[in-house]
Amino acid sequence: MKKIQLLLILSITLISFAFIPQSDNRTIPSANIKNLDGGDVNTTELQNNGKPMIISFWATWCSPCKRELNNIAELYDDWVEETGVKLIAISIDDARNAGKVAPYVNGKGWEFEVYLDANQDFKRALNVNNVPHTFLVNGKGEIVWQHNSYSEGDEYELYKQVKKLLEAK
Length: 169
Fold this sequence. Notes:
169 residues, 8 strands, Glutaredoxin, 8-stranded mixed beta sheet, alpha+beta
């Protein structure tokens, strides 16, 4: 009986943290990642000319990650046109699987930027424990909202948060 109660409490706690509002407005930490051509990029260089950015951590072995990004890809052109938002997908695939990222991205025709965090330095700097994990960044480079995990339709909540951010300006 105690195990069931503990499991219930743990489940409720995890569900309550599925959508985590970020109130301390921390900025994007500095870490080195690679573009799909193998070039080095520092994460402090990620920007969108004062407009919102979405940073989504994912992996090729993560089915919910791929579903989320594929669903966003279907809406992405409209999102950019309406809000100017930029999506940056950060693959946490390790060195063994990093070679699968570009073929997957190219096969899906994703129009957003994709980078590799094979050493997982950026992932650790943002305290990402599991994927998918999505951050919304305002025009000043401050993290204003984050979401962990994925359920069908979560992309609409993300877009709602982008619009809300723009309305607050």
